[in-house]
Design a protein that fits this description.
elongated; binds dinuclear copper ion; five-stranded mixed sheet; alpha+beta
């Protein structure tokens, strides 16, 4: 397909193949209908042109009734089928993989800053291993940006104040464009980078040699103490606040009867908007940290809280 359509972006992830199948199917259906309707227009224009002597008898019953009902029903089911196909593709992208390489990407005017789980940081470059699920969580520091990798057929708006998640599974090594797809100021067109997909060995070597390492978990632990979180969440009064060991990705029962999964955005919201989603059995006494804690610090705290759930 790629050789046939050279201008078409390369398919470099498993999702890209699935999206393209739907795309080409829609193009084929639309093309068929365009040819059919166009052909009929030309045909009828010729057959019933002014000088033509062709007769115009009334339509036979079967044509005006049965055919009319038939194509209306057929179109209905065809659209249902297309809806089902497109919706299930979309839902598959919302369903996050359990095992994934997690990367945090921050969008700001006008660059992409990436922070890997092991503390490696990079700017306008994103190194990922081939054949693994990559789960990217996205934050913006200023305005709305949009994380767009055409070769993976993924695009997600990054809205300030929200953590967006996106995932893909690259299946061929190479260097692919990363673009911002939302006009975000005068430097918007320069806000681009590369996703570098590497074999497992190359990725391991890169991880070892990469500069800009820092220890997110250790810095998070320091913040945990300096912000006073430890006093309630680890302190001598266990009834005051829920413990955090084993919290990450566990099921949490809330005071209002709902249950949620303690994922990144839940923990983030619990820190920023501490009196919503209160855990059952506890009072909403924790102060809100909105405006008091930076995105940088929040990610370090998250890394620390996650580390409390890892087996050592
Ligand atoms: Cu960021 Cu356009």
């Amino acid at each position: 397909m790629e050789k046939l359509l050279n201008f078409f972006p390369v398919e470099a992830s498993t999702g890209a193949v699935a999206v393209d199948k739907l795309f080409f199917f829609l193009i084929a259906v639309a093309g068929t209908i365009v040819l059919l309707v166009g052909g009929l227009i030309v045909g009828f224009s010729w057959r019933y042109r002014r000088s033509a002597q062709n007769e115009r008898p009334p339509l036979p019953e079967w044509l005006s009734r049965d055919i009319e009902i038939g194509w209306t029903v057929a179109t209905f089911f065809a659209f249902l089928f297309i809806f089902w196909w497109a919706a299930s593709l979309k839902l598959a992208t919302l369903d996050q993989p359990k095992h994934a390489v997690r990367i945090h990407v921050i969008a700001k005017q006008w660059m992409w800053k990436a922070e890997h789980g092991n503390g490696i940081r990079e700017i306008n470059e994103l190194h990922v291993p081939v054949g693994r699920n990559i789960l990217v969580s996205l934050n913006s520091q200023d305005v709305i940006h949009s994380f767009y990798v055409p070769a993976f057929r993924v695009k997600r708006d990054v809205v300030p104040g929200y953590t967006e998640q996106i995932w893909f599974k690259p299946d061929r090594p190479g260097r692919y464009e990363l673009l911002c797809a939302e006009f975000c100021g005068t430097g918007h067109s320069r806000m681009r980078g590369d996703v570098i997909v590497m074999s497992a060995q190359d990725y391991a070597a890169w991880t070892k040699s990469a500069p800009n390492r820092d220890n997110l978990v250790r810095e998070g632990a320091d913040l945990f103490r300096s912000y006073g979180c430890a006093g309630c969440h680890q302190g001598a009064e266990p009834g005051k606040a829920p413990g955090l060991a084993g919290l990450y990705n566990s099921t949490v029962h809330l005071a209002d009867g709902r249950t949620v999964t303690a994922d990144d955005s839940y923990i983030r919201d619990s820190i920023m908007f501490s009196n919503q989603d209160v855990v059952a059995g506890f009072n909403p006494i924790m102060p809100s940290y909105k405006g008091r804690i930076s995105d940088n610090e929040l990610r370090r705290l998250l890394a620390y809280i996650k580390s409390l759930s890892e087996k050592r």
